[in-house]
């Protein structure tokens, strides 16, 4: 499936700023001509050419390496040229400008990968994995992205889709050729095969759910009354002296975020202003922002000052929606004398810690992982996105409805199977819309 584009695109593929090497990447039909104009020849495909890059007047722009990939054996499937020069912003700017003078236009974010998708080099899951690999914040996330990029998730989805297709073809053949309903033997067979597909789908759904968490991380917000030790906890958990701590209540005014790696899970930890009614305008704004952060959280750590009566402190969480998980953290246990670790016998999850000594913090991290559903077993996890989960959920619903039609209306059964298949096809990109493609590729970096 080749949809070769008429225009040639170009971008600096390396990050902005100074570096040892910088790369300008070009893709499209003019790549060979641009190479010739810049270097005096078209490099042999996949052979490194040590060369000088010159403009139309023959003035040198840089000295470097040119690499040419001939269509279809390239990342995008088109002719691709890579110009590796010195990684200075001015050098890259001049080189890119010359390339555009020679007929290329500036690439949109993700346009190289979009072309790779359109030319059948990658499916949509793999294309998304490219961006996820680049954006990985933990080693586990990078590994899971590579698994998706290598096509493992795609092949599992394709296998499930194929199984559904076979089942549907079988049922449709029966509708076309037989006056009789399915015989009892094939009815059991159908039910068994359908159950098998449902099991496979449930398994991949679980892996994909973990993948989503792995990809975006979890928002964990530290909240509580002033002076409870939220900022101290933030510093201890992130092993950095990131935020100001003081015995003065009302120290933190702003919302501050730090990302920590908790057994492979990226936790976006947010410190907030102590919750109280304040006449101070700035502190009042801090409290408003704290409350807003809580409503966006995957988990709120309700930090309790264990030296102060509990009753008054709990009230500050009364406005928090019930569907946001909450973990009580009794702090300052080095002074209160409470035993650190998981607090049992409470209606809510609770852990006792000391932000000062670090005692109880590993129990706290464990408890955070449990509540977020993080098993840490990401050996089999694929990097995935919310839209994959939604599509798999949709397919799961169609299969459930289909199983209700086994032994009943064969047409309805076949139709539900078809819908399940179409829904799955949306994940890998067999069925797509321009809006979806725009949404996916616009979040990429330029040059990828
Ligand atoms: N002994 C002891 N002192 C602590 C502990 N945690 C915090 N503190 C002290 O309690 C005081 C308040 O700590 P912060 O971390 O600033 O408290 P906060 O909840 O961020 O306070 P605000 O920003 O004002 O809302 C500081 O003097 C800390 O040193 C702890 O576990 N043990
Ligand atoms: Mg604070």
Topology (SSEs and partners):
Blueprint: E1 9-12, E2 19-27, H1 31-39, E3 49-54, E4 60-69, E5 80-87, H2 89-101, E6 105-106, H3 111-118, H4 124-134, H5 139-149, H6 152-177, H7 184-216, E7 218-224, H8 230-238, E8 256-262, E9 265-271, H9 281-295, E10 299-305, H10 310-314, E11 326-331, H11 333-336, E12 341-342, E13 350-352, H12 361-372, H13 386-404, H14 410-428, H15 434-441
Parallel strand pairs: 1-6, 7-9, 7-10, 10-11, 11-13
Antiparallel strand pairs: 1-2, 2-5, 3-4, 4-5, 8-9, 12-13
The chain binds guanosine-5'-triphosphate and magnesium ion (MG).
What's the number of extended β-strand segments?
Answer: 13
N-to-C SSE string, H for helix and E for strand: EEHEEEHEHHHHHEHEEHEHEHEEHHHH
CATH fold name of the largest domain: Rossmann fold
Whole-angstrom Rg: 28 Å
Q: In CATH, what is the class of the largest domain?
A: Alpha Beta
State the strand order across the main sheet: 8-9-7-10-11-13-12
Bound molecules: guanosine-5'-triphosphate, magnesium ion
Average per-residue pLDDT, rounded, comes to: 91
Distance between the termini: 21 Å
Task: Give the strand content.
Answer: 15-25%
Helical content stands at 40-55%
Q: In CATH, what is the homologous superfamily of the largest domain?
A: P-loop containing nucleotide triphosphate hydrolases
Query: Looking at the structure, what is the overall shape?
Result: flat
CATH architecture field of the largest domain = 3-Layer(aba) Sandwich
Count of DSSP-assigned helices:
15
Query: Any idea how many domains?
Result: 3
Structural class by sheet pairing and helices? alpha/beta
